[in-house]
Amino acid sequence: MSNRAEMTRRDILKSGAAVATLTLAPGVTLMAFGGSDAKAAAADAGKRWGLLIDANKCDSNCSDCVTACKTENGWGNDGGAHSTPETESAWIRKVTLKDKNTGREVSAPVMCQHCESPPCVDVCPTGASMQRVDGIVLVDKHICIGCRYCMMACPFKARSFVHSDVPEQSVNAPRGKGVVESCTLCVHRVDKGRIPACVEACENAGHSAILFGDLKDPESPISKALKQYPSIALRADLELDPGVRYQNL
Amino acid sequence: MERTIYRTIKATPGIWGMAALLAAFIAAAGLSVLLIEEEGHIITGMNNQIVWGLPHVFAIFLIVAASGVLNVASISSVFNKKAYKPMARFSALLAMTVLLGGLAVLVLDLGRPDRLIIAMTKYNFTSIFAWNMLLYNGFFAIVGFYLTVQMTKGLSHKVHKAAGVAAFTWRLILTTGTGSIFGWLVARPGYDAAIMAPLFIAMSFAFGLALFIVVTLTLFKLDGRIFGDKLMERMGSLLGVFAAAVLYFTIVQHLTAMYAQEHAGIERFILRDGGIYTTLFWLVQVVLGGVVPMALVFLRPSRQSTILASILVIIGGLAQLYVIVVGGQAYPLEIFPGYEVLEGFNEGMVNAYSPSIYELALGLGGVALALLAAGVGAKILRVLPTNLSDANYPD
Amino acid sequence: MRLILAILVLMGLSLPIHADNHDIWPEVPKATGEPHPEGNEYWRKNHMVLLRHDRDLTLREGEREDIQASLQTCFDCHAVKDDAGVAVPFEDERNFCRVCHDFVAVKPDCFTCHRATPSDNVQNRMMATPDEPNSIAAYLERLKALEATEAEANQ
Question: What CATH number labels B6-187+196-239+354-385?
């Protein structure tokens, strides 16, 4: 250090370098031990995961998709003695419908529609309800405060609030009392290169009513099916552009 | 009009008794919260179909009323009505405590109230709920400043006016935000309507004035002060105008919705087939909470009319919010238009709701907190005037 | 002056505690497997920062392969077993995380939602290989085959 009152260029460079090192060092250490975001993340913005459900192939007496989802993610049996069907979570449910005009009966599963413009994401005060770059809509349960506003906002009744302590969580889906949850499109499987549990179960049951794939890939089976056969989105009037579409509904 | 002398209330046995009663309600609410935290929301009547219930009815009532309570001060600061000037200090204080009570209920009903810090620091700005949190905090700051200005000697009229206008503007934005929490929900036919915001503004005027009259009168009675008949009648006729405004927006809301075939279902539900909701709408909200108070204050203006009208407006307001909040959720989501649901749990059918004692206790505890805090404020700060008698009524 | 002196003396008396505080520390259950290369001190101080950083990468960006941040990997070495050989859950005070956290009286929020014990279900720990029937690759192959047979049938 010189005796002059003002800093020399050398002083500035020295202290600047020190400050820069001190600022960057923790980050570099963290990244070395904690994983680097410089590498490509597993959620790929070039993909959009979706489902195409063929209601004709869906059997109204079968609920294997629901059972498989329950087993995979550990919901459906939280409350014990106190629980009622109204308070139990329901990530996916089967509905059987009858057309009021024609009398035609049809059956299909309903789950989170993984909309492109999800109302639940818009209304969440903390940003816990979020959409990944590959289209999967999730709840970040670390910052969910359990206000249930997203449940008010969802047109499909897709979200559930956990009303009591969860005794034994599935390793695939951390879930606990006081936060909101919904179908994750089995993101823990998809990120490891597997198909969702409901898709697998439906295929194993011999129906193959749920088709899974990448909506952004024009060569994928789901895109080709959507191009070839007519399909609808539930509540199409809301223009939410869901990733889940229905055929023959 | 003579210079106003503000005095703190005396600690009479009556005041202590009231405080003890309110504290008991607060304790009951505290116990409810502990139990809900321990066991989970499963002990309440709320479930995955009716996610917001009785606590939210009370909370939103208090939050909407808080904004309207401030109006009494605004009438003097912003609209320069001399008769309201003595009441301005208590109006600001009561507005803050009523908002506090409402927010307490809202926060304590959260699934994870321990994460309040996250709610106060992480904001998703596309959410009107997040904006509301900022508006509520701002309300405390601005009204606190306003009260300070009112209680500080020697400040120029310009400062008073600026504080009053700022508070008035802020409360209008806040109540618009509260109404928009419902108005901006596209999913449910009972909500998704631009009129929600102005409806809530009108509700805030009516509920706030009614609550202010009831609370101030009670404190005056307990402390042996005189609240003149002329002022009572004047506030009564103002309350009548506000109740008329609420009825107006309600009529417009339902007439517009009835015109659209897609909303025919929800309108039939609320106006005719909804059971408890229909009863609450017509009997309590419209008649008891709207028509009767108007008849009382316009056809037979008197002190008694004003008091009765205020109580009825409050009851009608709670019913209105019950119909809006719970009724809007009871009506099923129309996910499959044109289809009848044969099988599917709770699909396409009216959702039942029976509130538990815990929810009632929590809601009432919020009211009690608001009132107790107002009473403590009136005991510590010189906010309650001593000259609201007829002799002092300005001509 | 005497007050300042008194305060300094009291502060000085606390020095022995800082010198070697391991006498009052709890008995931290021994881990199996290789120790962390950064050392215990680093992990005691920074594990929450790392967990929070990794959880955002996993949840929001779907990074599951490269950072291996699942809590299950912690339990590979840090599962405390009871006499029957079963890993103890968070409600049991012998749980690894409980031991230190009870000592410092800080309640971790993690186990409201996360399991605190190892799970038998290990299917999703590794990336799926194309020979596994429920992998996306195998699924797409089956769909392609189906498409081909349908095309043939239509001809």
Answer: 1.20.1630
